[in-house]
Design goal:
Length: 89
């Protein structure tokens, strides 16, 4: 049974996530306001970010950097800028 939510990222109703994938208050906000398709978009960006910048998820500084990019991408409508990566137009 899918949950339909109003997705903050897509600016329309879409399938919500099945469960909270991120801890804490931010995780609750993502669960309530970010759809599955938007989360998939973010995961692609996150993978590129981690690979491009050789980030380590065990490093608290790196995690903070990823989290701040995630907030900008999902909630503030900012594109993730990845050094050396040019989006195809």
């Amino acid at each position: 049974m899918s949950r339909i939510i109003y997705c903050h990222y897509l600016k329309k109703e879409a399938d919500g996530l099945d469960f909270q994938l991120y801890p804490g208050e931010l995780g609750k906000r993502i669960f309530n306001e970010i759809s599955k398709p938007a989360w998939q978009e973010w995961l692609k960006k996150q993978t590129m970010l981690i690979n491009e910048n050789k980030l380590n998820m065990m490093n608290p500084e790196h995690r903070k950097q990823i989290e701040s990019e995630m907030i900008k991408f999902l909630f503030e409508g900012e594109e993730v800028v990845i050094d050396g990566y040019k989006p195809q137009h």
